[in-house]
Design goal:
Strand content: 15-25%
Helix content: 25-40%
Number of helices: 7
Largest sheet: 6 strands, mixed
Strand order of the largest sheet: 7-6-5-8-9-10
Distance between the termini: 37 Å
Number of strands: 10
Structural class: alpha/beta
Mean pLDDT: 94
Order of helices and strands: HEEEEHEHEEEHEHEHH
Low-confidence stretches: none
């Protein structure tokens, strides 16, 4: 299987879709102080990065989910990537809303009908995996055969890994936290001391002792 982890990490760092700022941490919505912030929407605004990422996603899907029949995006971040990938793979595409519309046909799933079809879900970023698993549940309830998830980046947080395992859902990511930290250090985005901080955070995001390293 092709290993995209470090190449994709370099792309994300170069276009600043991922920020590593151990000395001035970000605050996540949960209140956790974090040395990393990821905004993969920036991929869409950089043509070279976009082509590379979407091509890599397509190849990863072909290698890991060769029987896929429909590409489904998560709302909203996964939708554009699902559209690009479905075009490259010449497959039907749809997406799952966060909730059903309150008018018209009250659809929650838009685009391709996934019923009875082998589906791969496209997600841009996985942290605790809660939202993408909700999407998988909606698709299963509609009769889809969910082969798994294809994501651009994962924090590899234990909570997310546990949730995926408990749901028996496979996720394949182009890159992850560990690869990104390694590339950031090698390319002088962060210092050795900041690298230690980042790895300490990764061990347990709820433990703020990494700030004191």
């Amino acid at each position: 299987m092709t290993d995209f982890r470090e190449d994709i990490a370099k792309v994300l760092l170069d276009i600043q879709a991922v920020f590593l700022r151990p000395s001035e941490p970000f605050t996540w919505a949960s209140g956790i102080k974090s040395p990393i912030y990821c905004d993969n929407r920036l991929i869409l605004g950089n043509v070279n990065a976009r082509v590379y990422v979407e091509t890599a996603l397509s190849k990863m899907i072909q290698e890991n989910y060769p029987d896929v029949e429909v590409i489904m995006g998560t709302s909203t971040a996964g939708i554009p990537h699902a559209a690009y990938v479905s075009d490259l793979l010449d497959l039907p595409m749809g997406y799952v809303r966060a909730k059903s519309k309150d008018h018209g046909r009250q659809n929650q799933i838009e685009g391709a009908d996934p019923k009875g079809k082998k589906v791969v879900v496209i997600e841009d970023l996985i942290s605790t995996a809660g939202s993408v698993l909700e999407v998988c549940d909606v698709l299963k309830e509609e009769g889809a055969i969910v082969l798994g998830i294809a994501s651009i980046f994962t924090y590899n947080l234990q909570k997310g890994l546990d949730r995926l395992a408990n749901a028996s859902i496979i996720n394949h990511s182009l890159s992850n936290f560990e690869a990104l930290a390694k590339v950031a250090l090698t390319n002088n985005y962060i210092s050795e001391q900041e690298y230690k901080k980042v790895l300490k955070f990764r061990e347990n995001p709820d433990d703020s002792s990494w700030l004191d390293i």
